[in-house]
Design brief:
heterodimer, A: 376 residues, alpha/beta, Peroxisomal Thiolase, Chain A, domain 1, 2 domains, 9-stranded mixed sheet, 13 helices, 34% helix, B: 134 residues, mainly beta, OB fold (Dihydrolipoamide Acetyltransferase, E2P), 8 strands, binds zinc ion
């Protein structure tokens, strides 16, 4: 089995790129990754986009991206598109790693993108809501922030946590983003601003949820035997993923069962005490999910996650989905790019002395959950 | 056109009667018509039509805007525990948000889900209201 590495990474600023379509966004990051890889083309292209069919009217986006980027003609590079809701980018990495580890490919280029600003937010929100079960949930007017809101209420009631206590999450994410020039919302906010912001689905306010922004990010995933010694970059120790039941079939609302099952993999692969030696990216489309993900991954006991948000030094260093932004199909690849940068040379004002990096991603209320574990 | 006749019609037992799946192996009841019990994996399941009454397990007053539903905001989205034991996601209507409380007794009524107005189809289905039959 091949050892697998991330050998190059690139991302665009997240925001409203009215002058750039998905082809231009993908081009920007792919060109930089290929350049960083010595100009050599990959032998496989994996494209992640969640909403391309609904926002860009485009099917077969992997082929269209390959054609637009000049990877299809003379080089005939094969491509595939991956979609698993909000975790699509992590699924793309999962497949890239499996391909390289098995020897099926030497170098796989992974690119994620999303165009979130082609239509008014009401259409984007309607399309995004389809990450839930269309027939049983979406048709009945149940949406992702509604579920997050009910989970948050249950958490507050169960553990005696106040609405104000949970402002620790967005305040920290904005503080991190203020040092990340690629973040969509690179400014600090106060607890009061979170509480007084427009209500999305009470108790969730606008400042508990992610902004709508476009973005693209890319990675080169390569096998150890094919990399010149000294340019290995960051090793991908393992990837794992899990699915869970719909929220209405769960006996408990305030937990993330699929994510919790991935914790066992991390504990098995990494040495004991790894949490003190790791940087972590968790999925925080809504504040409560960031807190619950920390608990599910063992960074805090149940009901205590909101207390450790300020203590963890390397937590969502780019500002998380909340403040860096959530261009959905690209989001977990942004998480990878940020940890790659942090582990290679430092990122967003941080230098990292630890050994491990974890990128967590999930879709909706933990309907599927994915974890990528990095080591330098 | 966003709505489809067949997609809605195929699930009419769900939308008009809140059809549940009852498992003969583990005894648990789940929302939706299923071929496999989501709790134990048994295929020894049967459809159960509930009475339509239950209690409010959780709710949120929502201003989340989706194309076509702006005029219906805020919506009260909820999870209801039916008297038969299954939890059902849906909407609570005909009540002031200030008067809603967890544990409230509710019942299902037929209402409009969404429409392709002004020219198209309308989806109807069951929502919840405060229990009146008492
Ligand atoms: Zn069963």
């Amino acid at each position: 089995m091949q050892k697998v590495y991330v050998t190059a990474a690139a991302m665009t600023k997240v925001g409203r790129h009215f002058n750039l379509g998905f082809k231009e966004l993908a081009y920007e990051v792919v060109e930089r990754v290929i350049e960083e890889s010595g100009g050599e083309a990959p032998d496989y292209l994996i494209v992640s986009s969640t909403l391309a069919a609904l926002q860009c009217h485009q099917l077969d986006v992997s082929t269209i991206v390959a054609q637009a980027l000049g990877l299809s003609g003379r080089r005939r590079i094969p491509s595939i598109r991956v979609e698993t809701g909000e975790s699509s980018g992590a699924a793309a990495v999962e497949i890239a790693v499996a391909m390289v580890r098995s020897g099926m490919a030497k170098k796989v280029l992974v690119v994620g993108f999303e165009k979130m600003t082609e239509y008014p937010s009401a259409k984007v929100n309607a399309d995004y809501s389809k990450i839930l079960d269309y027939e049983l949930e979406v048709m009945r007017n149940v949406t992702p922030p509604n579920y997050a809101a009910m989970i948050m209420k249950d958490y507050m009631r169960r553990y005696g946590v106040s609405r104000e206590d949970l402002t620790s999450w967005p305040v920290r994410m904005h503080e991190n983003a203020s040092r990340n020039p690629l973040a969509q919302l690179p400014f600090k906010i106060s607890k009061d601003a979170v509480l007084k912001a427009q209500v999305i689905s009470e108790p969730i306010t606008l400042l508990d949820s992610f902004p709508l922004g476009d973005g693209a990010a890319a990675l080169m995933i390569a096998g150890g035997d094919f990399i010149p010694p000294g340019s290995e970059g960051v090793e991908v120790l393992t990837t794992c993923s899990s699915t869970s039941t719909p929220l209405y079939l769960r006996d408990e609302l305030a937990s993330l069962p699929a994510t919790a099952s991935l914790r066992k993999v991390a504990d098995a692969v990494l040495p004991s005490g790894w949490r003190k030696d790791a940087a972590v990216q968790v999925h925080d489309s809504y504040s409560i999910y960031g807190v619950l993900a920390l608990e599910a991954l063992g960074f805090a006991e149940p009901g205590q996650g909101y207390r450790v948000v300020e203590e963890l030094e390397y937590l969502n260093p780019g500002g998380g989905l909340k403040a860096r932004g959530h261009p959905i199909g690209a989001t977990p690849i942004y998480g990878m790019c940020e940890l790659y940068a942090l582990m290679m040379e430092g990122f967003a004002g941080l230098s990292f002395s630890g050994s491990y990096g974890l990128v967590h991603s999930m879709s909706g209320p933990d309907y599927n959950s994915r974890l990528i574990i990095l080591k330098r | 056109m966003k709505l489809s006749i067949s997609i809605h019609w195929r699930r009419k037992e769900t939308h008009y009667r809140l059809a549940l799946t009852k498992c003969r192996a583990c005894g648990r009841v789940s929302f939706g018509e299923r071929k496999v019990c989501p709790y134990c994996g048994s295929k020894d399941v049967t459809t159960l039509i509930p009475s339509g009454t239950g209690t409010l397990l959780s709710y949120s007053v929502s201003y989340f805007r989706r194309e076509g539903d702006e005029e219906f905001l805020p919506r009260i989205t909820c999870l209801v525990k039916l008297d038969e034991g299954a939890i059902v996601p849906g909407e609570l209507v005909d009540v002031d948000p200030d008067e809603v409380y967890i544990g409230m007794k509710v019942e299902a009524v037929l209402r409009r889900y969404s429409s392709d107005d002004p020219y198209g189809l309308i989806y109807y289905g069951l929502k919840f209201i405060p229990f009146l039959k008492g």
